[in-house]
Write a structure and sequence with these properties.
The chain has helices at residues 9-23, 53-66, 88-96, 111-119, 163-185, and strands at 37-42, 44-45, 70-77, 101-108, 134-141, 149-154. Helices cover 36% and strands 20% of the residues. It is elongated, with a radius of gyration of 23 Å. The longest helix is centred in the last third of the chain and has 23 residues, at 163-185. It has a single domain (37-185), classed as Rossmann fold, CATH 3.40.50.10070. It is built from five helices and six strands. It is of the alpha/beta class and 192 residues long.
Amino acid sequence: MQFGSRISPIVAVLLFGCSLSASGQAPAATPTHQVPKLCVADIANSSLRPIDTNAVKTKLVEELKNQNLNATDAATHTMLGTQLDLSGKNLLAYKRENCDFILLTRVGLPESVIKSAAAAGQSPSAIAQPVPLLVEFALFQKGTAKAVLESSVTTEAADKTKASDTLTGAMKEEATQVWTWMNKNSLHKGKK
């Protein structure tokens, strides 16, 4: 076996560590306060409009990251129901993906649009004219069953073919509201 002039990575780390301790310098300490991990669930669509929910979720994660949040696209989804609640799969995602928070989002029609369609004797899916969309969201913190933040954003009216496009501004507003809550309630805890 012939030894060359190359130093193995392990030896290099050991030599570097020894040289630091000999010089009296300590390696940089890891921060004791980490930014919470925010897992974003797949978006539920009850709007009766064709929406590319994967693209909308990607935009939401991007907007959250633009707010300097540690957001990630989680392998879990928002259940359709009368309210936004955690499902068993969301609870598994906390552990599997090491989440501190889970964000659930649902796109639907505002109550006024549904009532207007009913008054006209038609289904909301039959409405041909442009209608606004309602984006409801809930932020859950690990260890709590009740949402720490529940809010909604209404988009501008759009026809069926442009529904996904109108959600861009709503995702930005959702990200801003989540950032505001997290900044106020959790990101600075433990900091001096």
